[in-house]
Write a structure and sequence with these properties.
heterodimer, A: about 375 residues, alpha+beta, five-stranded antiparallel β-sheet, globular, B: mainly alpha, disordered C terminus
């Protein structure tokens, strides 16, 4: 971190645990209203720890955190701003509603320093915005998972926090509720104009909720950018693995011309768009949704790759099916296909097929 | 045949009520500190709080007697401020009872406060509520039964104390003669009938109090469904 930005969040810190685990994070996030930054990464990499350090619930071992130019944490100066004074909204994985208070008392909880009239107006606004009017007198125990998260979000946003921190807010919910609430959260954050950082390992949530994505790995933040960009163009192998790129093929440069490259993967050739990497050893990365399965003769062109192979495995992946095709020894490709396509192509294990993908869908990472 | 010594019963009830009230005020901050502190030597404080559980009451009583006596600093300080000495007075007895019953209040408090979900406490902090505010608005309401258990146990324990009372308070009618001392006196003077009646009062009372404690912990009067993590 070169300095600290006057508007937004600037963090560069480490937290070491007595178990030997070390969590590192360094990033800057401009505090545009309603901007959602996704902190993405596999389980156990320390996403929650990063969020808790930002909320002030955990103290980093080293480093600094600034928000809008003010120090939240500075290890060298021994300065720690307590969570009460950071004005952040924090939503843990489980909603953490106060069980002894009704829905409306939960929403009112953080408004103790507001004049009475403003408080009740704010309460009405929140109950309306989150469709909680009919549940206002209920206790948290009497609510569904989705309703609980709505109350928790209403409670956090009621105080108009400067930053909202969401820790896997939808992970405890069933799939339909999750999809519904995902859209709702997006709309609510826009409406309340609250910048947010959301931790998740669910890429559908990352894509639908995030304006920006930061991938967290063991060494810290590995890559930041627009979610689609990071998912389809991971900067290195670790990011590719973290964002769940299904097919990663080691290959070697054979030819480079007219913005295209020809790569050798075993005895097969792969055509790809040249991304200008100055090296000869690559990993070719392909997302499952960019690979289609075809039957019949393989028409290999420079615009579209067709690699013949044998279906090895078909497994469900949410509403889709994940089809793994063995192309060659050590060369395996994965495609995500619809159930309908699976039936139309009568894809069963052992079927002779071709894995097809555009040259532009291949993302190259240097192996150097 | 003598009747029940109502003076002793009233004195004992007064002592027990005041002791549990003091322990509520004194014990809660101690218990909160024990549950929330990360100080590495915290176990020493926990051990000191638990000492009255294992020390013979006479040993504890002896030390308290010495400490509040005219030759020790606390005793001299008290005498200088208030104007009279502490040994063999009701105030002296109250101090001794408070120390003697300390673990009976603090340990249930610690168990109750420690059982409160940390996520709720943290949620309160991030909602801008101070540590003290969080204590009264989240922690205490969530640990009500445990706190009540501590109060009742310290009350009941004070009712039956003997050794410490005898060491610190002696046996002065209307000032320091509690039920248990009265029973001892009755037996010494071979008035078994009186001893038996007073003992029965103490036994019945203790049984009722303990029944209440266990019932509270089973939540038999809890309104509505209770989901505890």
């Amino acid at each position: 971190m070169s300095g600290h930005v006057s508007s937004g969040l600037a963090a560069d810190f480490e937290k070491s645990f007595s178990s030997g685990t070390l969590v590192r994070a360094a990033f800057e996030i401009p505090s545009d209203p309603a901007r959602v930054t996704i902190l993405f990464g596999p389980s156990g990499v320390g996403k929650t720890t990063v969020l808790r350090c930002l909320a002030g619930l955990e103290m980093p071992t080293r480093g600094r955190i600034f928000f809008n130019g003010a120090v939240w944490f500075d290890a060298t100066k021994g300065k720690v701003v307590p969570p009460q004074d950071r004005s952040v909204g924090y939503l843990p994985q489980e909603s953490a509603l106060f069980p002894h208070l009704s829905v409306q008392d939960n929403v009112l909880y953080g408004l103790h320093d507001m004049p009475r009239g403003d408080r009740s107006r704010r309460l009405q606004d929140m109950l309306d915005a989150f469709h909680l009017r009919d549940f206002r007198t209920r206790r948290p125990q009497e609510l569904s998972g989705g309703q609980k998260q709505r109350v928790a979000l209403a409670r956090a946003l009621a105080r108009s926090p400067r930053l909202l921190l969401l820790d896997e807010p939808l992970s405890a919910l069933d799939v339909p509720t999750r999809a519904e609430l995902q859209l709702e959260i997006r709309g609510i954050l826009r409406r309340f104009e609250t910048p947010a950082i959301a931790v998740t390992h669910d890429w559908t949530m990352a894509l639908s909720l995030g304006d920006e994505l930061a991938v967290l790995g063991a060494g810290g933040i590995l890559q930041t950018g627009c979610p689609e960009e990071v998912f389809s163009r991971p900067a290195n192998l670790e990011v590719a693995a973290a964002v769940g790129v299904e097919t990663i093929v080691p290959c070697r440069l054979e030819q480079r011309s007219d913005g295209m490259v020809v790569l050798a993967a075993g005895r097969h050739r792969i055509f790809a768009v040249d991304n200008g990497l100055d090296c000869t050893e690559f990993y070719a990365c392909l997302r499952g949704e960019d690979v289609t399965i075809e039957q019949g003769p393989a028409l290999h062109t420079s615009a579209r790759n067709h690699l013949p192979g044998v279906v090895r495995e078909v497994v469900p992946a949410g509403p889709l099916r994940k089809v793994t095709v063995d192309i060659d020894v050590g060369l395996r490709m994965t495609a995500l296909v619809t159930r309908q396509a699976l039936e139309d192509l009568s894809l069963v294990e052992g079927a002779q097929v071709a894995a097809s993908f555009k040259a532009s869908a291949v993302h190259l990472i240097s192996r150097a | 045949m003598s009747v029940l010594n109502w003076t002793a019963i009233a004195l004992t009830l007064k002592l027990a009520t005041l002791t549990s009230a003091i322990l509520l005020v004194l014990g809660l901050p101690i218990a909160y500190w024990i549950t929330s502190s990360r100080w590495r030597w915290k176990f020493l404080v926990e051990a000191v709080v638990a000492l009255p559980l294992v020390l013979p009451p006479t040993v504890l009583g002896f030390y308290i007697l010495v400490a509040i006596g005219p030759n020790a600093f606390p005793g001299r300080l008290y005498e200088r401020i208030i104007g009279h000495r502490l040994p063999f007075t009701f105030e002296g007895l109250l101090i001794a009872s408070t120390l003697y019953s300390l673990p009976f209040a603090v340990q249930p408090f610690v168990a109750a406060l420690g059982a409160v979900d940390t996520k709720l406490i943290e949620a309160s902090w991030t909602l801008g509520v101070s540590r003290i505010g969080t204590f009264f608005r989240v922690i205490l309401p969530q640990s009500g039964y445990g706190v009540l258990t501590g109060v009742i146990l310290s009350f009941a324990h004070t009712l039956g104390e003997f050794g410490v009372v005898l060491m610190v308070g002696g046996d002065i009618e209307g000032i320091t003669r509690t039920i248990s001392i009265d029973i001892y006196d009755s037996v010494q003077s071979l008035d078994y009938a009186s001893a038996s009646r007073t003992s029965l009062v103490l036994l019945t009372f203790s049984f009722v109090v303990l029944s209440i404690v266990y019932a509270l912990n089973r939540r038999i009067w809890a309104a509505g469904p209770e989901f505890r993590r």
